[in-house]
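re: that chain from earlier
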Amino acid sequence: SFGDIASPKRAFAATDGSAFVATYSDPKHPGGTRTVKLLDAKVGDYQLAEVQGGGGVGEPKSYVLPAAVLGDRTIIIDFSAPPKGGPLDFVGTLE
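^ sequence. v structure.
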Protein backbone atom coordinates (compact mmCIF):
# COMPACT_ATOMS: atom_id res chain seq x y z
CA SER A 1 0.00 0.00 0.00
CA PHE A 2 1.36 3.42 -0.88
CA GLY A 3 0.09 4.88 2.37
CA ASP A 4 2.15 2.47 4.47
CA ILE A 5 5.63 3.20 3.17
CA ALA A 6 6.46 6.85 3.67
CA SER A 7 6.35 8.70 6.93
CA PRO A 8 4.10 11.78 6.91
CA LYS A 9 7.17 13.95 7.52
CA ARG A 10 8.84 12.66 4.34
CA ALA A 11 5.64 12.82 2.30
CA PHE A 12 4.95 16.44 3.19
CA ALA A 13 8.60 17.47 2.78
CA ALA A 14 8.86 16.20 -0.81
CA THR A 15 7.11 18.36 -3.40
CA ASP A 16 8.77 16.84 -6.48
CA GLY A 17 7.24 13.36 -6.38
CA SER A 18 10.27 11.78 -4.73
CA ALA A 19 8.15 10.61 -1.78
CA PHE A 20 6.92 7.81 -4.07
CA VAL A 21 10.39 6.60 -5.07
CA ALA A 22 10.64 3.23 -3.33
CA THR A 23 9.98 -0.47 -3.73
CA TYR A 24 6.57 -1.70 -2.63
CA SER A 25 4.88 -5.06 -2.12
CA ASP A 26 1.33 -5.92 -3.17
CA PRO A 27 -0.72 -8.16 -0.86
CA LYS A 28 -2.82 -9.25 -3.87
CA HIS A 29 0.34 -10.65 -5.55
CA PRO A 30 2.52 -12.15 -2.78
CA GLY A 31 6.23 -12.27 -3.62
CA GLY A 32 6.03 -9.50 -6.21
CA THR A 33 7.43 -5.99 -6.10
CA ARG A 34 6.71 -2.59 -7.64
CA THR A 35 9.55 -0.09 -7.86
CA VAL A 36 8.62 3.53 -8.62
CA LYS A 37 11.20 5.63 -10.46
CA LEU A 38 10.85 9.26 -11.54
CA LEU A 39 11.69 10.09 -15.16
CA ASP A 40 13.41 13.26 -16.36
CA ALA A 41 10.24 14.65 -17.89
CA LYS A 42 7.14 16.58 -16.93
CA VAL A 43 3.83 17.17 -18.68
CA GLY A 44 2.19 20.24 -17.21
CA ASP A 45 1.95 19.69 -13.46
CA TYR A 46 2.63 15.94 -13.80
CA GLN A 47 6.06 14.45 -13.03
CA LEU A 48 6.39 11.40 -15.29
CA ALA A 49 7.38 8.13 -13.65
CA GLU A 50 7.47 4.41 -14.29
CA VAL A 51 6.70 1.37 -12.19
CA GLN A 52 8.88 -1.71 -12.67
CA GLY A 53 7.25 -4.76 -11.18
CA GLY A 54 6.39 -8.40 -11.31
CA GLY A 55 7.30 -11.74 -9.85
CA GLY A 56 4.27 -12.14 -7.65
CA VAL A 57 1.65 -14.87 -7.56
CA GLY A 58 -0.79 -14.50 -10.48
CA GLU A 59 1.08 -11.78 -12.38
CA PRO A 60 3.71 -11.55 -15.14
CA LYS A 61 7.35 -12.19 -14.27
CA SER A 62 8.23 -8.57 -15.07
CA TYR A 63 6.65 -5.45 -16.53
CA VAL A 64 7.10 -1.68 -16.77
CA LEU A 65 4.08 0.59 -16.41
CA PRO A 66 3.72 4.30 -17.18
CA ALA A 67 2.87 6.55 -14.26
CA ALA A 68 2.59 10.20 -13.33
CA VAL A 69 2.94 11.97 -9.99
CA LEU A 70 0.83 15.02 -9.21
CA GLY A 71 2.08 17.15 -6.34
CA ASP A 72 3.54 15.45 -3.33
CA ARG A 73 0.77 12.97 -2.46
CA THR A 74 -0.83 11.49 -5.61
CA ILE A 75 0.39 8.98 -8.19
CA ILE A 76 -1.55 7.66 -11.19
CA ILE A 77 -0.43 4.32 -12.65
CA ASP A 78 -1.63 2.75 -15.92
CA PHE A 79 -1.92 -0.94 -15.04
CA SER A 80 -3.73 -1.60 -18.36
CA ALA A 81 -0.39 -1.58 -20.20
CA PRO A 82 0.61 -5.05 -21.45
CA PRO A 83 1.37 -7.53 -20.07
CA LYS A 84 -0.28 -6.48 -16.79
CA GLY A 85 -3.85 -5.82 -17.97
CA GLY A 86 -5.30 -4.03 -14.94
CA PRO A 87 -7.03 -0.67 -14.37
CA LEU A 88 -6.17 2.27 -16.64
CA ASP A 89 -5.96 5.00 -14.00
CA PHE A 90 -5.07 3.49 -10.64
CA VAL A 91 -4.73 6.37 -8.16
CA GLY A 92 -2.53 6.03 -5.09
CA THR A 93 -2.15 8.59 -2.33
CA LEU A 94 0.29 8.97 0.51
CA GLU A 95 -1.38 9.28 3.89
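Residues 28 and 57 are 8 Å apart (CA to CA).
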